[in-house]
Batch of 2 targets.
Target 1
Amino acid sequence: MMKLLRVDKEPTYQCALQEMSTADFFEQLSPDGDVVVQVDYSTVNYKDGLAITGTSPVVRKPSLVPGIDLAGKVVSSASTKFKAGDEVLLNGWGVGETHSGGLAQMARVHSDWLQLRPTAISAKQSMAIGTAGYTAMLCVQALQRGGVEPGSGEILVTGATGGVGSIATLLLSDMGYSVVAVTGKASEHGYLKNLGAQEVMDRCLLNEPGKALQKERWAGVVDAVGSHTLANTCASLRYGGIVAACGLAQGLDFPASVAPFILRGITLCGIDSVKAPMAKRESAWLALAQHLNLDKLDSLTTEVGLAGALQVGVDLMAGNITGRVVVDVNA
């Protein structure tokens, strides 16, 4: 028997902790895949919160296991890429949406979705990083490719107490960048300063309609919010500045002007973590192993068992989670 979180969309939407035999699990919830993984840890990202609560239709199957991330050991493999005992991780690729994901004690997935976990990062730490931290590094690398260096000027990080924002703030500050972190939580200013933010800005200064061109300030931006916040950051980028956009917490819309693009030569980079090529993923994880302060990562991480992930999903959607949450699926 194995434990898992199961989403059922009919007759009414629900996500609940269940036990079932591995044979039934593979037949009913995970019929496809050439590698079986014994899962050690998962996590709860924004998309997982949507799946757990049913807030948005991210689950595309009548029944499946949520969880877009997992870390564990290969039990069996029909692929030459992996063998039993390999320590692996998985981010995205539609797991938790169209294929059963990581919030279970076992997973059957496609070998093309898996990668070996860097030895410098433990299984638990890899899930403290998760898709959020991996996305944060993709954002940092986008800024670097665009020539944004520590001496280029201030970097703005929006949604800074969330998973992407927290790790982006930590990464950038440890890499020598001057970080201004944006939050609507006055109680979390100390948290962000501890991560390395040199300044904390109230999100109310960015989340309302603003001028098409504003005073130039930011050399680069990591934006997990979208909507008016993204438009205002674009309007206040310095000449040649770059925004790495990876989220839509405020909304899908982009109520902006082309003015900063054609008058200041700014760049808006969309960051996709779900279907990013494996070479880009491996580069990001190697950079995380090199640059991320794992002691500070541990300090911003809390741990729950599989049953506790249900409440974390609710709290995440209510905006009541700061930092990262790791799920020990065997607890």
Note: The first strand starts at residue 2 and ends at 8.
Target 2
Amino acid sequence: MTKFEITILGCGSAMPTTLHHPPSQLIDIDEKLFMIDCGEGTQLQMRKYKARMSKLHTLFISHLHGDHIFGLPGLISTLSLLGRTADLNIYAHKEIDFLLNPLLTYLGNHLSFKINVFQLNPNSEELLFENKTLRVTSFPLKHRIDANGFLFERKESPRHINRGMIDFYHIPVKQVQEIKNGADYLTPDGNLILNEHLTYPGNPARRYAYCSDTSYAPEIIPYIKNVDLLYHEATFAESERTRAEETFHSTARQAAEIAMEAGVKKLIIGHYSSRYSEIGTLLKEAVAVFPHTELAIEGKIVSL
């Protein structure tokens, strides 16, 4: 199975605490790292959990509240100190320039690499990145400012060659790749051997959706339908539902309701309010609706 891992670097919210770090996650796809959000101290969390900064490929910023972006100056500076030369791509809303432009002016010629900023569409679904193995899309969330969720899809891999059957039919090497790509095989005497007899199924597609920050928004369900793993913010307990509505955040129960309605396989909740020194209550409220719920904890690694 090809690698697809999510590492939680931070799962707190805006008010700093000693219990949780500001939001950030790493998505490891075959040793290539993609970062979602970059709260203050993210570079230290990468060091703590032994993430290789040289493998960092692209950053995706869900929205421009400080707890999701204040780690960018430190991370960019550290990458330059480490001698990075490859371009760094950042997907964010257009106002990110107000943070990045003064930083880049300050760093000047000392920055060893180029930063490319790509503007997110806060109003509709959009394909952001795609290669042979990975597709990343964004979709709108419901927050006080423009905010986007992200969907990472590890594509289904090509079928695996059944070497025994290839040898049995004496199939020429030059046709093996065609068979791997789905072709049938016609023997010299005219018999058609179906592809399913010559190959094994490839690794299935795997999907991870990230939704933070957002109020309860059933309209996001079509974007995250049946994903293998959903991360959804759960800033408040049900006792603070009014506060959640006022601040455009979700309760743990609401996150679980979204997971249940979307038919996801597993839910991880995070973005905890600083008022909770013990987050077991949030888990209890979510599990009552959606049993396959876990808490985000710094250092937690989930493999898909």
Note: The mean pLDDT is 94.
